[in-house]
Amino acid sequence: MTVVDTGTRFQRQPLIGAGGDLVADVEAWLGSEPLRVLVTEFGGDPAAFTRPELPLAARLAALDTFTELWDTRRGLERNLATELGLSETRQSRVIDAANALGLRGDPPRHRHYDHMLMLGGLVRACVARPSYAAHVIREREITAGEVTTLGAHRPFVGNEFEQAAELGWGDLTEEYEALDAGTRRAFDLGDPEFEEGERFEDIGGTWGVKHYRTADGLPVRVVAAPSAEPATRRANTADSYKFFAEHVANLKPGERLLLISTAIYVLPQHVAALRILALPYGVEVDTVGGKPTNRPRLPLSHYSATKYLLEVRSTVRALAHLVSALER
């Protein structure tokens, strides 16, 4: 379906954390025009989430409950989520508002970062994100002390088998394998210098780290993080960040981390990084959306309005966890 342009434009909200006061940034996001429009569009009362007499945590919890009507994943992977039945006009308005809320990337603020991080995900992300990271380093747009890609032993689902086959990886069956292949291809890596890890009968607890080095000597690691609940689920974003901080990196206060994601996922992944990495370790985190590169050339992704609403919901949940951490 073609999305019509209604002409609606919203003022772009600053990335949460850029203002130096996390609580004030969250309050501003809750009271922003694009969020008011989204809530109103689906029959909600925006004032319910901005009343100053209610604790911030309570308002985020209420917004989390409201956004359940957008949840077409129901615990499934993103590529298995169903679509909401939205008109073309509503789709355009949703995408415009979500972009203004921060679901798209900004350029990096610095030229050098101590750590460059990429989360894995579906097959396309396992290729596109390392490819962009290698591109900006190769073109000397950014320098990095070390590079880490963070994934999990998650079996492929849905169309991932077809995507892997199109990339020449028809024998791959899981995210960690695809992330390793995508990272090796992007950085022209040979065999790892060494590997470490543990395997368990429950794949959720299995972890591994492959240590590489580029021809120029840049350390590159490919990580499969274990799940905090290995019996019930695979590792998620929070698990990956925690494993990176506790096992992989030696984070020091004042270090700069550049997290490379896909634009639509920038905000929820950034908010999680603020809570898990910036707050406890005193590091500075920037999160950007990677741009397409030619290594290899992939078809552009076109995200539906439903996909944007799912990531707004993910952002709300990430903000609730962040506020809870700030109140401890």
Walkthrough of the structure:
The chain is of the alpha/beta class and 328 residues long. It has two domains: 14-100 and 301-328, no CATH class; 112-297, no CATH class. Helices cover 39% and strands 14% of the residues. It has ten helices and seven strands. The protein has a seven-stranded mixed beta sheet. A hairpin with an 8-residue loop joins β3 (194-198) and β4. The longest helix has 23 residues, at 305-327. The radius of gyration is 20 Å and the shape is globular. The termini are far apart. The relative contact order is 0.17.
Summary?
The chain is 39% helix and 14% strand. With 328 residues, the chain is α/β, with parallel strands linked by helices.
Class from secondary-structure proportions: alpha/beta
Binned, the helix content reads: 25-40%
Shape: globular
Radius of gyration: 20 Å
Q: Give the N-terminus to C-terminus distance in angstroms.
A: 46 Å
Outline the low-pLDDT stretches: 1-7
